[in-house]
Amino acid sequence: MEYSSFAFQHPASIMLMKTACLLQVLSVVVIYSGYAYIARVRLTGSKAPCAGVVQVKIMRKWERVCDSHWDLQDAAVVCQELGCGVPYSVPPASAFGAAIIDAVVITDVQCRGDEDSLRQCPYSTRIQSFCYDGRFAAVNCTGPDEVRLVNGTSICSGRVEVKHNGVWGTVCDDSWDLKDASVVCRQLSCISVQEHEYNPTFGKSSLPVLMSNVQCTGDEAAPWECPQQGWEHNTCPTGRDAGVTCTGKICNGNAINISLFKKWKELKVEDTYLMQDAK
Question: What's a Pfam family this protein contains (predicted)?
Fold first, then answer.
């Protein structure tokens, strides 16, 4: 008489096998049939940091998002969450080389557009063996806000310009003071403020005025964190652009640009100066 190998397994081992199978089933139910918690969001498939195919991290695994109902409101939340400004298009994933067919977990995203994170938006969590022939969610964002100094005598002086939602513009000098200027200097890794009043040599800009009535405390990491009148909402007179001259800049920890008698000179730290002495 022949017996199957299963007939001689110990009852305890059979119970362990059944328990393991049950846990596997429960894990699938929790992840895919219930609410899948989105831990992180990223964009992939592009050299630009603020463009690409949307991926979400769920249970230590990165998953794609199906583009069913995907629109600019959904994309706006992703751009905001990643510090990438606002979306200017929602291209097909194939634009980033993602035209493969793959299983997805997140689909039917329905954001209002003002959420802080994609996890706050309503969405469905279910396994799909395909996503409309590889139609995954993707986005092109304008990029993060930036600040720069132009037309100055060094990299640490000039007319203050900021980029917001992909557009460069100027800052009005109404209420512009030492605290506002210090925030700009610090963000650009310049040491401190030497002058915060506008210098005519910086020239006049033809760019739109994006910020006015800036009221920094001096502790902010960037000028757009300061209270202001509102982006592009201003009554700034023409030609009143904010400017700043900072005392120097630390360049990769190797050299410092300092102002001596209003002339800029680069000093190499390894020659005769220590970093703390230069500061």
Answer: SRCR
Q: What is the residue-level pLDDT of the chain in tens, covering all 279 positions?
A: 433 333 444 544 444 444 444 333 333 333 333 456 888 999 999 988 999 999 999 888 888 898 888 999 999 999 999 999 899 999 988 888 865 555 667 888 999 999 999 999 999 876 655 566 668 899 999 998 999 999 998 889 999 999 998 899 999 988 899 999 999 999 999 988 999 887 788 988 889 899 999 999 999 999 999 998 878 776 776 668 999 999 876 554 444 444 443 344 444 433 333 333 443
DSSP conformational letter for 31: I
- How many whole angstroms separate alpha carbon 120 and alpha carbon 174? 39
Tell me, what DSSP letter sits at residue 222?
A: S
Residue 138: closest CA among 104, 95, 83: 95
Q: From its phi and psi, is residue 13 left (phi > 0), alpha (psi between -120 and 50) or beta?
A: alpha
Alpha helices for the chain (secondary structure H): 11-28, 72-81, 178-187, 275-278
* Residue 148 β-bridge partners: 161
Count of Cβ atoms closer than 10 Å to residue 70 Cβ: 24
